[in-house]
Predict the 3D structure of the following.
Amino acid sequence: MSAPLLLIDDTPSLRLLYESILRNAGHDVRSAETAEEGLQLFRDLAPAVVLLDLMLPDRDGLELMAEMLQLRPETAVIVITAHGSINKAVEAMRGGAFEFLVKPFDDARFLAAVANAARDATPEAGAEPPARIDAVGGSPAMRAVMAKVASVARSMATVFITGESGTGKGLCARMVHEASPRAAGPFIALNCGAIPRDRLESEVFGHLKGAFAGAISDKDGAAMAADGGTLFLDEVCEMDLALQSKLLRFLETSSVQPLGANRPHKVDLRIICASNRDPLEEMRRGTFREDLYYRLYVVPIHMPPLRDRGGDAVAIAEAALARFSVEEGRAFRGLSPEVAALFQRLPWPGNVRQMLNVLRNAVVLHEGELVSAEMLPPELRAELAAGMQADWDAAPGDGLEGGTGARPSALPPDGGRIESFLGLTLAEAEQRLIEATIAREGGSVPRAARVLGVSPSTLYRKREAWLKGG
């Protein structure tokens, strides 16, 4: 690896043991015993892989991990703890950890985790990048986003990405960078809402040693680090007005002046911004400078919420499930029909991020081939039960399950021609009719059930049996 591994653990004996194991395996490793020391080394070394103990004397390890991932989202963090529990494991994975190890663990397990993290963080030249899970799916809304990304990527225009939290604004920014002439340069992401206001200026523009209390060494800011590439300012509307003024001056001069420095430095970079707020509304409220708004809001891209992406929810879920299964050593191959139907109709207030957390939770805590309702968090199981009850109440019955009333007619799959069923067994004809009706109803099992005059649970059971080959 081009950069050393960073090990942060406050137990001297374990730190020496881990260092010995890693160095004997050919790794370059630097270590720290506190969160403060570890964060400084992280900034100085820019390691691709961090080994992080959760129990540190001066700070919670998960908080430290969150700050490191805000500074360098591509870092692979392996969380280590003697206080392991399922809840801690899930919390760490939700927070973006690459792997979770519980002490004690053997050398082989330790080195395998490091090797996997290094391979993920520094892919071989020519290797295909990992699938963009958030961008999976062919809904009209996402096709429009991808067309705009392709159109704007090769220009130098500033891009402003809006959308709800969890819709993939950071992914969109990275796609613009990777499709641009600057793809070989750095992509530096900075979350303006996750950094204390009194430190944000230093994080953006850097500082010299002694510029303020705690400035123990020179530090390049994000703008300097992005020279030759792209600077992504996430949640830019969170900047206070004083710093907005300095950002505007930077945009006008393309010069960076670190805190404590006498001379500015010229840089060549592209700016991409994002916010989950409406920047125009923030400008009208007086919390976002008008001149900065017009400087940044050149090419807007709006990331649609998951609920407006049609059938993308299930496609994204299946792509994520395949990746998580490999990462966790599981054998999941899909969603059960009832879970797929639930994922399709949920409003997903946390968007793609919320759905990925649900799936990661299921994969970490359970085993099987299909994600079933029993593997979902309690609130989603309640949503599923409520939805099925509503469908049951609304759908006419089939005479065997208590319903009455007239039923809409279901047509054979190809325009109503009965010849399409000739030569099929009764079971094959039933399956073809059901699947064709579901397809005609836009993938909605409850609506198809209403057309066919049965309860949705009947169709869910039949489809699950077909999936299992029954």
In short: The two ends are 50 Å apart (CA to CA).
